[in-house]
Specification:
Blueprint (H helix, E strand, L loop, with lengths): L9 E4 L2 E7 L12 E5 L5 H26 L32 H12 L5 H18 L9 H13 L4 H22 L26 H14 L2 H10 L5 H5 L6 E2 L6 E4 L14 E4 L2 H13 L18 H15 L7 H13 L4 H8 L16 H8 L4
Antiparallel strand pairs: 1-2, 2-3, 4-5, 5-6
Length: 391
């Protein structure tokens, strides 16, 4: 237990009290972290004590119910399985009954059926979003949630000072879990989390593209510093790749042999792709070609193009983003980040009047329309023609 003398279950950071309590080991499988920590939003020890004690009491009550729920029902093996299964809510015939399930059970259904072969982030997003609902409204049967609960949930998210885009993403996940589980267990219900109003633009900052002259300046600095971090910047700058896509590349994904140097963006166990259209080949030109050549010359003893960010089972794109964004802000404007290169790529291709479906293929963006799902797309030569015209 981490505590201060004046306020149990708290610690102080920059004058603000934070709640902190370790998750009991027997309940660790219910959580994604070993400790629960969050700001109590006060500098007062008296207020912090009251809030922390209330939170601790709520946790004790919740953990009691979790422990009770996890205890196997005595004599369950003696029950006739002609009706609803005690453990899964599924009848002996394999069909679901028409009864409801709690939201926590709905999450399990959603992850078990839709989460197969999906990245861990998919699982965490569902658990985190619905965890917010449980925190705000309780863990109820799906049929028990009302529009008042959904509005309370919205207000709780707003009170966390989340951006409108983050609230939209969380609501979308909750709706998906709710609808999927309801369909699976065979209940007809209006989703109370649909159509909830909030300001979707609140706190949303526009991603600013980098001006062409700034891109050229950064590329020149990359050549001067000539290290793996700068190779990663240069690789992204003239391909428009997502940072995670570039950071998770293998050395063998870089193909310099033949008349058309290119790289292959494909899914790997350590780095999943955002969408199906993200799998693609991109011609290497300009600074990106220089970076690819440096990688093939300098990287030894590793299969990864950027070993620094692939030391564990997953590509650490967040670490790459933090380091490179800090470097970029030293040489560009404060609103510019690594993702600005991706926005700039779209503008640079527009400037040379590149067809929109070619732009989409280069950047791995989804192109609307049934016809775009046919065929293999443009050959490398066509893509290279447009990339070589970049301003």
């Amino acid at each position: 237990m981490l505590e201060t003398k004046s306020a149990p279950y708290t610690f102080v950071k920059q004058g603000i009290f934070y709640f902190s309590r370790r998750v009991p080991s027997d309940l660790s499988h219910h959580y994604n972290a070993s400790r629960i920590m969050y700001s109590l939003r006060t500098r007062s020890a008296v207020v912090a004590t009251s809030r922390a004690q209330r939170a601790a009491q709520q946790l004790d009550e919740h953990w009691y119910h979790l422990r009770v729920r996890d205890v196997d029902l005595p004599g369950k093996h003696l029950l006739r399985m002609t009706g609803r299964s005690v453990a899964s809510g599924v009848g002996a015939s394999g069909e679901t009954s028409g009864e409801s399930v709690k939201l926590s059970e709905a999450v399990s259904i959603y992850i078990r059926l839709k989460g197969k072969d999906r990245p861990v982030t998919f699982h965490r997003a569902a658990e985190r979003a619905c965890g917010y609902v449980v925190d705000a409204c309780g863990d109820k049967d799906l049929t028990a949630y009302s529009r008042a609960d959904a509005n309370s949930f919205r207000d709780a998210l707003i009170s966390k000072h989340l951006a409108g885009s983050s609230i939209t993403r969380i609501f979308g996940t909750v709706r998906s879990v709710f609808n999927f589980a309801a369909a699976e267990i065979g209940i007809m219900i209006s989703n109370p989390f649909a159509g909830v109003y909030y300001d979707r633009q609140a706190g949303v900052e526009d991603r600013q593209p980098l001006p062409v002259e700034m891109i050229r300046s950064l590329q020149a600095l990359c050549r001067e510093e000539d290290d793996d971090l700068r190779w990663l910047v240069a690789m992204v700058s003239d391909t428009g790749m997502r940072l995670a896509e570039a950071a998770g590349l293998l050395v063998e994904d870089i193909r310099l042999e033949g008349p058309m140097p290119h790289l292959v963006v494909q899914e790997h166990p350590w780095r999943r792709l955002k969408t199906n259209s993200s799998a693609r080949t991109i011609p290497l030109v300009g600074a990106s070609l220089w970076a690819a050549e440096r990688i093939l010359v300098e990287v030894r003893g590793s299969k990864f193009a950027f070993p620094r960010y692939n030391k564990n089972s997953n590509t650490n794109a967040n670490s790459a983003s933090a380091a490179l964004n800090k470097w970029i802000k030293q040489h560009a404007q404060k609103e510019h980040t690594m993702h600005s290169f991706r926005h700039s790529m779209r503008d640079r291709l527009r400037a040379v009047e590149c067809p929109s479906d070619v732009v989409d293929q280069i950047g791995g963006w989804h192109t609307e329309g049934v016809g775009h799902g046919y065929g293999r797309g443009y050959p490398l030569e066509v893509l290279a023609k447009w990339l070589n015209q970049l301003p």
